[in-house]
Amino acid sequence: MSDLLLPGDAERILAKAALFAPPGNTLPDGRRDLVGLSREELLAAVAEAGEAPFRAKQLWHWIYHQGVRDFSAMSSIARPLQEKFAKHFIVSRPDVALDQLSKDETRKFLFNFRDNEKVETVYIPDRQEDRGAVCISSQVGCTLSCRFCHTGTQKLARNLSSAEIVGQFMAARDAYKEWPSPKGETPRLLSTIVLMGMGEPLYNYENVAKAMKIVMDGEGIGLSRRRITLSTSGVIPMMDKAGAELGVNLAVSLHAVRDDLRDELVPLNRKYPIKDLIAACKRYPGASNARRITFEYIMLKGINDSETDARALVHLIAGLPAKVNLIPFNPWPGSTYESSTPVALKKFASIVMDAGYASPIRTPRGQDILAACGQLKSLVQPAA
Ligand code: SAH
Ligand code: SF4
Hints:
Elements: H1 9-19, E1 32-33, H2 39-48, H3 54-65, H4 79-88, E2 89-90, E3 95-101, E4 107-112, E5 118-126, E6 131-135, E7 139-140, E8 158-159, H5 162-175, E9 192-195, H6 205-216, E10 228-232, H7 236-245, E11 249-253, H8 259-265, H9 274-283, E12 293-299, H10 307-316, E13 322-328, H11 342-354, H12 375-380
Parallel strand pairs: 1-2, 6-9, 9-10, 10-11, 11-12, 12-13
Antiparallel strand pairs: 3-4, 4-5, 5-6, 7-8
The structure holds S-adenosyl-L-homocysteine and iron/sulfur cluster.
S-adenosyl-L-homocysteine binds next to strand 10 and strand 12.
């Protein structure tokens, strides 16, 4: 399709995402995966099998509320129909290729999909609070080549499907036996989702959006949109779309306050420079003191960590309900940067804090199991 036929940037990005589409959801034996289907698609699948619409509602409940994978355990469905469903359908999970527990209880999974592509998912518990975040991947590899990021050295193999995105969360829930889905305010061990794993979620928008709608559905997993944070390197046209359609929390990987430096660290900046990025953050719906935008800022020694940088950062985000996550750089084999010194980190944080912004320093978690972006996979499967 010629670019001229595509009216806007968002459409162009969606068309490009389709070139990296995941494999379909039908197995070689003809059975179809029900995980990852929207409610409408599930309804259509049930109708195709010649069954009444309320069966779709029952299946949804068993799959997403109860976490059941085996049709024979779906006790509100009579045996003959269970058997029929089992002939037509499956309820998938990714295979666990590796499962590592850190001394600090961070747990890292390497998941393997049907075509043998793999991604990482990390569970980061908050022991004091009985809750935790699941860091989910959206793509196998990434096209964006940020200089400090190991995933950026791994060519984009393909986008993940909605089933593979929801599947990471469901498989992590399996590992903690957190089924059925806790209701309302009942505490959850796996209480938030951060789309901060491998890949750029806004370059795989449709599958990410579909997966998040499934996760947010109140008759299933029922995670509130306030408990989901999507991290982007700054794909502006899709930020507007995500804000309008999903309304999840937004995190922006800023990492630099000057275009010349950000052009180098986050090459996407050449297309969507800082000024436009901040304007898009200002437009982001629901940004308020209760729902602040998170700016991620990786602290690189001697590169972006001076006091001048800190003051410029404060100036840049002035007027935005925001917080700043300062992330000490996590080295990987072959990386050229070093993490800022503790003194530089503290100084930077205090300047941002004195200006009225929360600026937690993200202590590295799971270092003994290489829980930083892209590292485990690279040990198993060297980057192409
Ligand atoms: N593509 C999206 C989401 C995935 S990357 C984005 O860029 O926002 C999410 C975060 O991983 C980035 O903000 C970056 O802060 C962090 N990250 C990547 N490489 C890192 C490294 N070597 N050390 C510490 N954090 C890293
Ligand atoms: Fe891709 Fe994010 Fe890594 Fe940049 S930081 S290469 S956008 S995964």
